[in-house]
Specification:
InterPro entries: Bact_polysacc_biosynth/exp. This is Capsular polysaccharide transport system permease protein. One of its GO terms (molecular function) is protein tyrosine kinase activity. It comes from Poseidonocella pacifica. This protein is α+β, with helices and mostly antiparallel strands and 464 residues long. Among the domains are: 148 residues, Bacterial polysaccharide co-polymerase-like (2-Layer Sandwich), CATH 3.30.1890; 132 residues, Helix Hairpins, CATH 1.10.287. It has 14 helices and 5 strands. Helix 1 packs parallel to helix 3, helix 6 packs across helix 10 and helix 10 packs antiparallel against helix 13. It is rod-shaped and about 195 Å long.
Length: 464
């Protein structure tokens, strides 16, 4: 007959017995101390550890039972609970952190990839890099419109304003190859920017005009405020005098370019008026030449005046001829045929008729085909046509001349010029390169690159 286990006599014995029953039983063939637990197993092990701690706590004394028969049932309850649930294996205690080979590799990579380049960059910036001096110049394109007398009387005036299109053109011109080439020929920019031969990073290393234009973009900064139309140029050089000279050259060439634009605008404004004036002048010359040819051909300055003079002369001769004929008729009636007065009167009539014929023949007004009156009227009509054309050409020329003068005056009233609100400055201390900022940005960038590389390396290592 099997003996039943003796129940614990006291509550403390019962708690100790329950704690022993709750201890996890190791599986056969497994050493809990050498089995690593990961993921869900570690969570279950922690829960088991908490359960053991709760079980090890002393419980309050139970109420005394008056009936002895009920004691076995009470004692059997704590025994059934440990048997009902299976305990998890006990996780091993956490081992202290140790420095391994991969940690040394990370430290070595940090020294090689980050620390060494940063120290080298700092040495270069503070020991090798040459100082750079900045010169600044600021200007704006102004468009001045001087009001005419009529506008001043009417109260319509517009003194000045900025031209955004001209400013845009100037902004692009300052960064153009044309300006770089012009200043390089006058100031020798390649020599100015390549003087610190020991500085391979910030000094100009020589090359083609395209290389010089790229280096120009590094040393010359142009700030353009589109709202106000102001342009500010910052020029860097390794000598303050060189920086000021380059800034002066930029301002001078920019002013020349604006003057050229203003001249082109004036030329466009007066070109049409000038063309009209030239055409009117040519037409006037042609009409005057035609009048001159007419006068040389017919040997008369003004046919109208000649007509009046001839009419007066012929009229006088005709009157004298009429009087002489009347006198001749009267003498024929009262005298005998052999009267000497009659012969004298006939001679006078003949002389007057010959004079009239000579006057007409001298002017070329008679020929075999046309009569004198018809020929003279044709000449007068031709001359009057030439005079009308000449007067019209003169009026056209006067009008074109007035238009040309007005266009020139209008072009002069609208002029563009470059106004400098800040003359080229001369630096007294070197502001560039900004060593602290440059080194900080370099260190931040290279640290980010190193950190990303380390993260990628560990990610690939964990996937193996």
């Amino acid at each position: 007959m099997n003996e039943e286990p003796t129940p614990p006599k006291t509550n403390a014995d019962r708690a100790e017995k329950a704690g022993e029953d709750k201890l996890p039983r190791p599986r056969p063939g497994l050493d809990p101390a050498s089995t690593p637990l990961k993921g869900p197993k570690r969570a279950r092990a922690q829960k088991a550890k908490l359960a053991r701690a709760e079980a090890a706590k002393p419980k309050a004394p139970a109420t005394e039972q008056t009936v002895d028969a009920k004691a076995p049932e009470t004692d059997a309850a704590p025994k059934a609970a440990p048997a009902a649930r299976e305990a998890e294996p006990v996780p091993p205690p956490a081992q202290p952190a140790r420095i391994r080979k991969r940690h040394y590799a990370v430290l070595l990579s940090f020294i090689l990839v980050v620390l060494t380049p940063v120290l080298a960059g700092g040495f270069y910036l503070w020991v090798v890099a040459a100082d750079q001096y900045a010169s600044k110049v600021g200007f704006s394109v102004r468009k001045e419109e001087m009001s005419s007398a009529v506008e001043l009387l009417g109260g319509i005036t517009e003194l000045s304003g900025s031209s955004s299109s001209d400013t845009d053109i100037l902004y692009e011109f300052i960064q153009s190859q044309k300006l770089v080439d012009t200043l390089n020929r006058s100031l020798n920019l390649a020599e100015i920017w390549s003087r610190p031969e020991y500085d391979p990073v910030f000094a100009y290393q020589g090359g083609t005009i395209e290389d010089l234009v790229m280096y120009w973009g590094r040393m010359v900064r142009v700030n353009y405020d589109t709202m106000s139309g102001l342009i500010e140029v910052r020029v860097l050089a390794f000598d303050p005098e060189d920086a000021t000279r380059i800034a002066d050259g930029i301002f001078a060439e920019s002013s020349n370019m604006i003057n050229e634009l203003s001249a082109i605008a004036r030329e466009d404004a007066v070109s049409y008026a000038r063309e009209e004036l030239d055409r009117s002048l040519e037409r006037l010359k042609e009409t005057r030449a035609a009048v001159t040819r007419f006068r040389n051909q017919y040997q008369m300055v003004d046919p109208t005046s000649d007509l009046q003079a001839q009419a007066s002369l012929l009229g006088s001769l005709q009157a004298q001829l009429a009087e002489t004929l009347i006198e001749l008729d009267f003498l024929e009636e009262i005298t005998r045929p052999n009267d000497p007065r009659l012969a004298q009167a006939k001679r006078r009539v003949e002389v007057i008729e010959n004079r009239i014929a000579d006057e007409r023949q001298k002017r070329g007004l008679v020929n075999e085909d046309t009569s004198g009156n018809e020929r003279f009227s044709t000449l007068v009509g031709e001359y009057e046509g030439l005079i009308v054309e000449r007067e019209f050409a003169e009026q056209s020329y006067v009008s074109a001349l007035a238009t040309s003068d007005a266009a020139k005056a209008e072009a002069r009233r609208k002029s563009r010029y470059l106004a400098a609100y800040m003359k080229p400055t001369r630096a007294e201390r070197a502001e560039y390169p900004r060593r602290g900022l440059t080194l900080s940005l370099f260190a931040l960038f290279i640290t980010l690159i190193w950190g990303i590389g380390v993260l990628i390396t560990y990610s690939l290592r964990d996937r193996r």
